[in-house]
Design goal:
9 strands; 8 helices; alpha/beta; about 240 residues; single chain; two-stranded antiparallel sheet; elongated; five-stranded parallel β-sheet
Length: about 240
């Protein structure tokens, strides 16, 4: 599966990060394409301006419609994907959204800046995504983790599907604890069950820990989990032993 992601931005160099590590390897294998388009290249202003003062007054500058729309039109000639704007009006990004977007073969991400974009650009946008109720310096900061989260679930990007299927949030919960060598570090030992070689017991222990950690750290997530009969037994066993 060859997935194409085009990113429209004022700062293409910020996305050099995708040339490294897991995403970089996926690009080299031809599984994934990530291209950047500099919105400044599409402005008709001789000084390469892409922003202007807002009508009606107010602080800050607004990204102008013309360079953004012309950039979108150019990219649309070679990418039929949805135009996704990183902005504050959008739904807050989560793992469920990452799963759905990882099924798309083509996507276009638009990174806003300054005080936002000219309202007339919205007619060219298919969906808007936010990373939370806080202010950042530009859409690039939101785009990087969103694209990374999506890409790691594209088939072939990770070595095994289990690498992401057991991670925090994939199934609506946090992840179980992980340990590696040495067996004892500063008097703190790896739990015996993980050294036992008994795969069924290890599976149950991990499931119990996953549930307990989610309940303690993120009760909002825990309340949404559909606990099986086995899950309830594991939680009862934990409650009895604490």
């Amino acid at each position: 599966m060859d997935v194409k992601i085009d990113i429209l931005t004022l700062f293409p160099e910020m996305f050099d990060i995708f040339n490294y590590s897991i995403i970089g390897r996926a690009i080299n294998k031809g599984i994934l394409q990530i291209n950047t388009f500099d919105i400044r290249e599409f402005t008709r202003d001789k000084h390469r301006k892409v922003d202007d003062y807002p009508y009606g007054g107010g602080a800050g500058m607004v990204m102008a419609a013309q360079p953004i729309v012309d950039c979108i039109r150019k990219v649309k000639c070679q990418n039929n994907g949805k135009v996704i704007y990183l902005g504050p009006r959008g739904k807050t990004f989560n793992q469920s959204m990452a799963k759905e977007l990882s099924k798309e073969s083509e996507m276009i991400f638009l990174c806003g800046h300054y005080e936002g974009i000219d309202e007339r650009v919205y007619k060219y946008i298919d969906t808007e995504i936010s990373i939370g109720d806080f202010v950042i310096t530009g859409g690039e900061m939101a785009c990087i983790p969103i694209v990374d989260s999506i890409c790691r679930m594209i088939p072939g990007v990770l070595a095994k599907s289990e690498s992401y299927m057991e991670e925090s949030f994939y199934n609506g919960s946090l992840e179980y604890p992980q340990y590696t060598r040495p067996e004892c570090f500063e008097g703190d030992n790896v739990p015996e069950v993980l050294l036992s070689g008994h795969h069924e017991n290890i599976k149950k222990w991990r499931r119990m820990k996953l549930l307990v950690i989610t309940k303690n750290k993120r009760p909002d997530l825990f309340q949404k989990l559909k606990l099986s009969t086995e899950d309830k037994k594991l939680m009862d066993l934990y409650e009895k032993n604490i």
